[in-house]
Amino acid sequence: MSASPEPVIIVGGGQSGLAAARAALSARLRPVVLEAGEESVGSWPDYYDSLTLFSPARYSALPGRAFDEGDPDRYPTRGEVVSYLRRYARHLDADVRTGVGVTAVRQRRGGGYLVHTRAGDEIAAAGVVAASGSFGNPHLPELPGRVEYTGEVRHVARYRRPEPYAGKRVVVVGAGNSAVQVAHELAPLARVTLATRAPVRFVPQRIRGRDLHHWLHVTGADRLPRPVLTRLIRHAAVLDTGVYRDAIASGLLPRRDMFTAFTPDGVRWPDGTSEPVDAVIFATGYRPNLGYLATLGALAPDGTPRQISGVSTTHPGLVYLGLEFQRSFSSNTLRGVGRDAAYVVAAMAEGLRGAGLGPWLRRRRPVRR
Ligand SMILES: Cc1cc2nc3c(=O)[nH]c(=O)nc-3n(C[C@H](O)[C@H](O)[C@H](O)COP(=O)(O)OP(=O)(O)OC[C@H]3O[C@@H](n4cnc5c(N)ncnc54)[C@H](O)[C@@H]3O)c2cc1C
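Above: query sequence and flavin-adenine dinucleotide SMILES. Below: predicted holo structure tokens.
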């Protein structure tokens, strides 16, 4: 029996949307998931082919359903995650509507929202969960000469496999997991340089014979709030069994300081030399994909949501899921999103039941993103 006569619309049917739907059902709200794609498996099918999870299966599950019955210490493949999410959605028994893209959310006079879809429909909603990820909004830095450069410029979001780059001169930009993994798999086939602003930092995948995620779990580091965490960890680091560090140290995967500009046929390095380059792949991150909230006035001028720990500071009944560091290090991961889902849905439910979000919001200082 639903406590809310109108649905809570969840925009996005990836792991965040599914975790939100589960939390909403537990809170006796009526979730309706609107997913633009054909299946509610998020962006996982579009990640590069060789991707395996950085966490073992035992630390890669959403609430209420173990990853599967296979070896809990293996690192699942991209395809296994897709199958897991498919199963998760099936067992959730929520109203998941695929092929429904949300174009705008507007506030309704008297409370609640109208959610507009690409097909021209308008759906009344008591509340909205923005769970649309960031993969649809890849970030490319502005660099001098890019317009004149005649080679290939690609964000890693559109990279799938190394074979098309065989024999080519390629620069991969970035110092995170994706940059290093992609550069490393290109290295045997192409002439690759990894371009980063500073030397790459590594964090060991295994410590004292256990996966890092075991220690994150038992120490509680996975749940630390962002302000505490950023005092402890000041720089992003690449998870490594030693293979990437060795590849860079041995010159198998050369690293250089980031180039300063494009030239018409390549790049200019900080020492002033120019080099012809066939392709530059930017693994430079993503930004929240929330364009449908722009007219609502819920976003800052740079497109990031005005929120505290995933709860909108501008619109009661609007919450976010899957933001990087939303509440902790694990917010934007399979293992962590469930905790955030319970939290934001509880805040939303409190608002919808008439308690109002004002006092709840005043207890927390704004999150700087
Ligand atoms: C390369 C890569 C590797 C990663 N590896 C790991 C890992 O090993 N372990 C881990 O835990 N995490 C990993 N992550 C982080 C994170 O878990 C994933 O990015 C995950 O896909 C995020 O899930 P999500 O549901 O928040 O977003 P997404 O998976 O991006 O799902 C968002 C969904 O919203 C839909 N959507 C978007 N806009 C609209 C709209 N307007 N209307 C309707 N639907 C919309 C999209 O179609 C999509 O299905 C990785 C991320 C990347 C990019």
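The radius of gyration is 22 Å.
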